[in-house]
Design brief:
By secondary structure, the protein is an alpha+beta fold. Helix content is 51%, strand content 23%. The strands form 2 sheets. The chain has a 5-stranded mixed sheet with strand order 2-1-5-4-3. Strand 9 and strand 10 form a beta hairpin. Helix 1 runs antiparallel to helix 7. The longest helix is centred in the first third of the chain and has 65 residues. It is rod-shaped. The chain starts with a helix and ends with a helix.
Length: 324
């Protein structure tokens, strides 16, 4: 009876304490994951705002160029191989090219605004007007551009600088009667719009998945992003989920940038975090085992004293009942 009572008291004391400690760790784990999720989604929202601003800036500047009547007139003359005097070229440069250059310089977010003519023979006017042959040095230079589209992460090799990580809104330029006159490139630095694609901090990476299936950024984790997209339906509001791949847990947040036709994802490995949780849990179990032994010893001592006093009382009662 003594041993059973001691064990019962020990269990009644230890089980609630163990359950409370375990619940405390689980609550801390969930709170930490939720905090990381909030931070990632806030970061995604800021990226989305910058990307939307980039789309608006490139679209407005492109429309400004396309609505410049003197530019269209000049390109039609080039297309029709109309001879122009030096005075006419200088007037067009000083009046219209200078105005377009001022528009480019006044916007620090723009990298380049370039018009490539359909004809290879043209008097180039830096930094705006170029021969169509120069466009062929770009990775998308031979693409059939029939409507406005975005080109991502290419090398600016028009000249010798070879600047990496450029993205642009590319738009066909048409004349008054609809004929193709050239191509307009509104370029920005992709590593400024999506900086997370080209840097990693600890256990966090990013990737960009186009509607066409192309992937930019950390392609080694592309399968993680694709698996996350099976659970998420990205919208223009951030959303998150936890997935596991090859035994490694990941927290993935995604947001859709509709105007670009892309989904931007941030991927955070939880492997080290969960390993630290497991280490804390094992440490808690080890510490709890020591405490359990101590508590068991204390309970046993107390129970011995209690039963010794109880035996004394029972002996007295027994003696009294026997008339001693």
């Amino acid at each position: 009876i003594r041993q059973r009572l001691t064990l019962t008291v020990w269990v009644l004391v230890l089980v609630p304490v163990l359950a409370f400690c375990w619940w405390l760790l689980e609550s801390w784990r969930e709170a930490t994951v939720q905090e990381r999720t909030r931070e990632m989604e806030q970061g995604l929202y800021q990226v989305s705002v910058y990307a939307d601003r980039t789309v608006e800036m490139c679209t407005l500047t492109t429309q400004t160029f396309l609505n410049t009547a003197n530019l269209i007139d000049h390109l039609e003359k080039v297309q029709n191989q109309v001879s122009m005097t030096t005075g006419e070229l200088l007037e067009f440069y000083r009046r219209d090219i200078a105005a377009m250059e001022k528009l480019l310089v006044s916007n620090p977010y723009l990298y380049k605004m370039r018009v490539y003519t359909a004809e290879s023979e043209v008097q180039e006017m830096v930094p705006i007007l170029y021969s169509g042959d120069r466009m062929k040095s770009l990775s998308w230079g031979d693409d059939d551009i029939s409507q406005s589209c975005w080109k991502f992460d290419y090398l600016d090799s028009v000249f010798s600088e070879n600047v990496p990580h450029i993205m642009s809104l590319v738009t066909p330029v048409t004349g008054w009667s609809g004929e193709r006159l050239g191509t307009l490139e509104a370029a920005v630095r992709m590593d400024e719009v999506f900086p997370g694609l080209f840097t990693s901090s600890g256990n966090q990476w990013a990737c960009l998945i186009l509607d066409t299936g192309e992937i930019y950024g950390n392609s080694s984790l592309a399968t993680v992003g694709e698996q996350a997209l099976d659970q998420l339906t990205p919208t223009e509001e951030p959303s998150s989920c936890e997935i596991s791949q090859n035994g490694i847990p990941y927290l993935v947040s995604a947001i859709r940038i509709e105007e670009m036709g892309v989904v931007y994802l941030q991927i955070n490995s939880l492997k080290n975090f969960y390993a630290s949780i497991l280490a804390r849990q094992l440490g808690m179990v080890a510490a709890f085992a020591g405490v359990a032994v101590l508590i068991f010893w204390c309970i046993r001592v107390l129970m011995k004293r209690m039963f010794r006093q109880l035996d004394t009382v029972l002996d007295g009662v027994r003696s009294f009942s026997e008339g001693n």
